[in-house]
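<instruction>
Derive structure tokens from the sequence
<data>
Labelled lines for chain and fold:
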Amino acid sequence: MPTVVLLDADTVAGWRRSTPSLAQLRQAADDLAQEHPHVRVAVIADPSIKWALADDEQDDFERAIVQRSVVCAPAGTRDGADGWVGAIVERARANGDDVVMVTDRAVGGVRVARLGRDGDRFTFDLDNAHEVAARAAPQWKRRKRT
């Protein structure tokens, strides 16, 4: 079964940094492709990451979107970015792909791989990826007015 690895741009670009870096995201994606050449890599992002990047990387981020090396959740996405990620996972599975994510989010039913560093290279522990229980959605209760 083919494997698709979804890289959460926010997580990878900001990993162990005070501000996210597009250069770090690119290096991590390249390192993943070299370490695991048998997987397909898709970089997914919430478009708001653009404004967290340094000014000199914002135009590069736009070019990455145009070149489709980064795919952003469309504005007004049903169920927000989390729903969009869920739709990507469902589609990949419908195509017969195994899905692994590199993220710091809890995405129900998706195996999450650990991101690490060995010297100047990023590492990805795909073999020990494990499913993380999704956080329960907040239960909002309407209060009675008295």
Notes: Residues 3-131 form a domain with the Rossmann fold fold (CATH 3.40.50.11980). Helices lie at 9-13, 22-35, 49-52, 55-66, 80-94. The radius of gyration is 17 Å.
